[in-house]
Design brief:
Elements lengths: L11 E6 L4 E3 L2 E10 L4 E9 L6 H10 L10 E5 L20 E6 L4 E2 H5 L6 H20 L12 E3 L5 E3 L9 H17 L15 H11 L10 H8 L10 H7 L3 H8 L16 E2 L5 E2 L22 H4 L59 H38 L11 E4 L11 E5 L3 E5 L25 E2 L16 E19 L6 E7 L10 E7 L3 E21 L1 E2 L4 E2 L1 E2 L1 E7 L1
Parallel strand pairs: 12-19
Antiparallel strand pairs: 1-3, 2-3, 3-4, 4-6, 5-6, 7-8, 8-9, 10-11, 13-23, 14-16, 15-22, 16-19, 16-23, 17-18, 17-19, 20-21
Helix pairs in contact: 3-4, 3-6, 4-5
Length: about 600
């Protein structure tokens, strides 16, 4: 299609119009493939109608984009706001009447993402590479305050050299959050092979981390979305793990339901706990009466009086005798929390009759409650304050003496051989009483495999499994390196090595040699290779050292032995564990 656009410099000759018209708040933008006659190269030229002040905001964004140099975004070669014609055909600013507002971009050769998706979803590794490079370019624009916009499959081009580029930089409008959501839509399109602009339901499948990334990028709930495009690029740069999403991974992706329910609870929501305080009362004017459940009733300025009444004038006009108040309907009735025990003894002070003649049981003067604590109570208080710490100190000294005597006695009986490094023997978990099984001869291992029931279809180094029982401690099988947590990056409960003994054997111990001391394992056995870790019974557990013998509490019969890692140790790139040599021993 030949261009009829006028007002462009003679240097640029439009050839074909590409893409649909892009509406703006002040007009419309058309994109053309053009020829730069001076440098003899193809360029993409976009023209804004009308020109002049209406195109000012777009041209300002283009000038900001002109300072970027990243292969993921088309470079800006030239830009002009144009000049609109004045009244009577006069020109504004001395320029030519009706000159166009335009932006000249680098022309990117290659296949668009929309054309690529017509052949179906993209492979996992290609998705990570394309979206990571595109996100890095957009993050660079965000660093200078520019929201790119226009992140659609028609504008993303897969360059022949393996790079990716975005045409039409910048779009007429855009926001930072809009770029994050658009990248999430592109990631979803790459995983499903469907245009995100098309309506309808689509099943989102793929690696669990990519599925979670799509949901976070497109989420509009507070606290659930991504903070920046740079964070998205960092997540995409993680190690690629191919294979379909497992049932366990899908379950993990949906475990935020309880978090959502917890977040949706309001402070004024009624609790279903029987002892919880009632909801706040509402005053007649509609204002809520907020009560602090930890607030206690006010303490009277004098001690409550029992027995014979005292004239109100002696105790103060606001004083009420405690005996005259009914607990169920008095001033303190209805409190959700019981009052603390009083410090004062409310029994009649009959002991005073022995020292004073004519004492009739009344108080001559009102008590203040500040200095009327009896002497015996103060003495008991001092005994508690000073006696309990002294008693605790004596108990600690006695325990230290007993413990030190026992340790020194045991240490004196140990006969160490200079130059030798004894192996660690870990009895079965929970065997506090009884003696463990005597380990016998080694049982031949006829085969092995990686046991990863919660994995994503990419087991940890399956080709290296035979190195774990080849008789050479210099070779080993190891797990993948997991990032973020020694609990397998919080992706699964564990991973293990499943050993086949050929037939059922009576077993007594397993010895593991490892170059990653500190990892925790469980030794499990079964008569058949089950599909879940619960199909294997735990025979022993412990923490690995350089050489660790895990002795069973009692003989166990089984054909399959599972060395199940439950915790990893730090490695160069994250957390991992390994088995240099494993030996299964029969019961002695």
């Amino acid at each position: 299609m030949t261009s009829t656009t006028t007002g462009l410099p003679d240097r640029y000759r439009p050839l074909d119009q590409i893409g649909a018209d892009e509406p703006t708040p002040t007009g419309v933008i058309q994109c053309w493939r053009a020829k730069d006659r001076v440098l003899n190269r193809d360029v993409a030229i976009r023209v804004h109608t009308p020109a002049g002040q209406a195109a000012h905001a777009w041209i300002s964004r283009a000038l900001t984009a002109g300072g970027l140099a990243t292969p993921a975004l088309a470079m800006v070669y030239d830009a002009s706001e144009g000049i609109g014609g004045g009244p009577g055909g006069d020109t504004v600013g001395g320029g030519a009447a009706g000159s166009a507002a335009y932006v000249v971009n680098e022309w990117i050769d290659g296949e668009t993402l929309a054309e690529r998706l017509t052949r179906g979803p993209m492979p996992d590794r290609e998705v990570r590479t394309v979206l990571r490079r595109l996100a890095e370019g957009v993050a660079e624009a965000h660093r200078v305050g520019l929201a790119v916009g226009g992140l659609t499959p028609d504008n993303v081009v897969l360059r022949p050299n393996g790079l990716v580029g975005l045409r039409a930089v910048p779009a007429a409008t855009g926001t930072i959050d809009g770029d994050i959501a658009a990248l999430g839509a592109l990631l979803e399109a790459c995983l499903t092979g469907l245009d995100p602009a098309q309506p309808g339901q689509r099943r989102l499948t793929g690696p669990s981390d990519l599925v979670a990334l799509v949901r976070r990028a497109r989420s509009t709930e507070p606290g659930q979305g991504l903070s920046s495009v740079a964070a998205m690029a960092s997540l995409l740069a993680e190690r690629s793990r191919s294979g379909p999403m497992s049932a366990a991974a899908r379950a993990e992706e949906t475990d935020s339901g309880w978090l959502r329910r917890l977040r949706d609870r309001r402070p004024d929501q009624a609790s279903d706990h029987p002892d919880a305080p009632a909801r706040p009362q509402v005053a007649p004017d509609g204002e809520p009466v907020r009560l602090n459940p930890q607030t206690l009733p006010p303490v009277p300025p004098v001690r409550p009086v029992t027995g014979t009444a005292v004239p109100p004038g002696a105790l103060g006009g606001d004083t009420i005798a405690a005996g005259s108040v009914t607990p169920a309907a008095g001033a303190y009735a209805g409190s959700a929390f019981p009052s603390p025990p009083t410090r004062f003894d409310d029994e009649p002070l009959d002991v005073l009759d022995d020292g004073y003649d004519g004492y009739d049981g009344r108080y001559e003067e009102p008590l203040t409650g500040e200095n009327d604590i009896d002497e015996d109570g103060a003495t008991r208080h001092r005994l508690v304050v000073f006696g309990l710490p002294l008693l605790a100190l004596l108990v600690v000294v006695a325990l230290a003496w007993w413990f030190g005597k026992g340790v020194i006695s045991v240490a004196g009986e140990v006969d160490e051989t200079p130059g030798s490094t004894p192996s660690v023997s870990a009895p079965a978990q929970g065997s506090e009483t009884g003696s463990p099984v005597e380990a016998g001869a080694a049982v031949p291992i006829v085969g092995g495999d990686v046991f990863d029931p919660q994995g994503d279809g990419d087991p940890d180094h399956p080709d290296d499994v035979p190195l774990a029982f080849d008789g050479d401690p210099a070779t080993s099988w190891s797990t993948y390196e997991y990032r973020g947590s020694p609990a397998f990056g919080n992706l699964k409960d564990g991973v293990g090595l499943l050993l086949d003994l050929g037939s059922a054997q009576e077993l007594g111990a397993v010895t593991v040699t490892s170059t990653s001391p500190g990892a925790t394992v469980e030794i499990r056995t079964a008569d058949s290779a089950g599909g879940s870790v619960d199909a294997f019974d735990v025979a022993a557990a412990g923490e690995l050292q350089e050489e660790t013998q895990l002795v069973f509490e009692e003989p166990v019969t089984g054909q399959y032995v599972l060395v199940w890692f439950t915790g990893l140790v730090p490695s160069e790139g994250g957390f991992s564990a390994d088995i240099a040599e494993v030996t299964v021993q029969a019961a002695g």
